[in-house]
Amino acid sequence: MIFKKLHELLFPFVKNISKKYIHGELIIENNLSYKGPVIYAVNHTNVSDTPVVFHTLNKQAYILAGTKSQKLIDSIGFNLNGVVWVNRHSAKSRKKSTDKLYKILSSAGSVMWFPEGTWNLSDNLLMLPMRYGIVKMAAKVNVPIVPISIYYAGIKIYSTVGDPITIGINEDAITAITQLRDIMATMKYEQMETCGVYKRCDVDKEDFDALIKASLDEYPTFNREYEEKCVFKH
Q1: Considering only CA atoms, which of 182, 190, 150 is closest in space to residue 165?
Q2: Secondary structure class of 151 (helix, strand, coil)
Q3: Is 87 left (phi over 0), alpha (psi -120 to 50) or beta?
Q4: d(Cα 204, Cα 207) in Å, to the nearest integer?
Q5: φ, ψ of residue 24 in degrees (nearest 5)
Q6: Residue 211 lies in a domain
Q7: How many domains does the chain have?
Q8: Quick check: helix, strand or coil at residue 3?
Q9: Span 34-62, pLDDT tens digits
Q10: Which end of the chain is more exposed for a tag (fewer CB within 10 A), N or C?
């Protein structure tokens, strides 16, 4: 692609300025040896997720991002890195973004994709329901999906890169997305286990609510009412 080299040259700058959103010690587990284009499937909790992925991978990947809830400075950073914007409530916009993603992946570019479609602010779901588009795209372009799980535990941030997942061209989309969601949920649970195993009744809901409030306060442009409408309903 014409601008791919430029985005790669600008990536160190984008990565550096994104550090302002990383609040704690980043603990990375990344043994990925695959060198070709991939779709990185990332769980989504707050504004720090994209910077965490930047520092985890240490290489450029195009971001699939919603048109709402972005600060101007972050929109500029996304454009410098390389981004595909999508209005999640518009079928026409989703189709247009899908075409752009196909061109990127077909041209040896990689994509950062948040298949939950919005922040997961649930207190009982490890992963929100996920749209089928990510598995359909992987099968169509014949590129693997690499899951990335991020877990925030106080001053520590765990970022784990999983093994590549191949989606067959004739594989059922519902089955494929269910398996991907299960893999990502398991990765997150294993990260949680490193911090100790607790009974649900021993977890203070006020602590969870305070964590959510801190995330929302840090990014006041996040429209929670709008974003909750972006949660996929099967």
Answers
A1: 182
A2: strand
A3: beta
A4: 5
A5: 150, -175
A6: yes
A7: 1
A8: coil
A9: 989 999 999 999 999 999 999 999 999 99
A10: C
